Amino acid sequence: MNTFSLRAIKAHLGTQLLGKKIHVFDELDSTNLEAYRMAREGGEEGEVVVADRQLRGKGRLDRPWLSPPGVNLYVSIILRPPIAVRYAPLITLMAAVATAKAAKGISGLQPRIKWPNDLLINGKKVAGLLNELKSKAGEVDFVILGIGINVNMTLEMIPEEMRPIVTSLREELGYDISRVEFLSTLLREVEGEYQAFLTGETERILRQWEELSQMVGKVVEMKSFHEVIRGRVKGIDSDGSLLLSAPDGSEKRVIAGDISQPEEFPDMKPGFGSEGK
Ligand code: BTN
Question: Class of 6-212 per CATH?
Fold first, then answer.
């Protein structure tokens, strides 16, 4: 059953820009695909696509995103920031910060951001972001901010092999959360961070990201394309890349890849790559 009533969502909202138009679907291939189609046809900044269920939910690196009906949030937001493409990764960082704040606000639980844009609670993934961009002559034409949050999914709904690494807010809290309230909180948080981004408060967004990721100073292993890079996290750059200090003292900048959780490397020798931290 689809419990997303447009009236209920609007009643909770209180935003200026995001959600002026909200498109609610019982079922979609993917909210990102739908929002992309809408944006290409002239969809406006702030339009939101929500589905109760996705048949082809898209994750990062072409992975499927588990999207059962009735329990989670699958949301895509059209943004049209007047910026050059090179600044677009900051949108991903600000969205991760906003989603973490919304989750904390609604559940009291503090998710950690795992680079580039996963949210973890107790080391398990509770949300993921997939942002897709269309450019025009080096400028952003539009960005589709795709956010998937495991809200009320139960352990039984998660395939067995994924159970050690995936969770939901309900699994962590022991009770259900209103998806409508979460959606309103999310849109308010994204709007707040997006306005901050547009008015140039990028430093604050980066510092919040670093604080929420708690990765600075930790040793990580990164699979980036065909390379495995190990190093201590120095911070995040304004282009969204992760800065690592490698064992040989050189600085590595990673733009894409899969990172192993810092907790998996408790054994690193003290001093390794620790200059500046
Ligand atoms: C990831 O962690 O791999 C990113 C997952 C992003 C999933 C969301 S759900 C809403 C939106 N629509 C999609 O098809 N994907 C994103």
Answer: alpha beta
Nearest atom of ligand 1 to the alpha carbon of 51: 10
CATH of domain 215-277: 2.30.30.100
Q: Let me know: does 122 contact 33? Beta carbons within 8 Å.
A: no
Structure-block tokens of residue 163: 């159970």
Distance 58 CA to ligand 1 centre (A): 5
In which residue ranges of the chain is CATH 2.30.30.100 found?
215-277
> In which residue ranges of the chain is CATH 3.30.930.10 found?
6-212
pTM for the structure as a whole = 0.90
Q: For residue 53, how many other CB atoms are within 10 A of its CB?
A: 17
At 261 the pLDDT is 55
CB 111 near ligand 1, within 6 Å = no
Percentage of the chain modeled with pLDDT above 70: 92
Residues 111-116 have a mean pLDDT of 90
69 lines ligand 1 (CB under 6 A): no
Specify the 3-state DSSP secondary structure of 60. Answer: helix
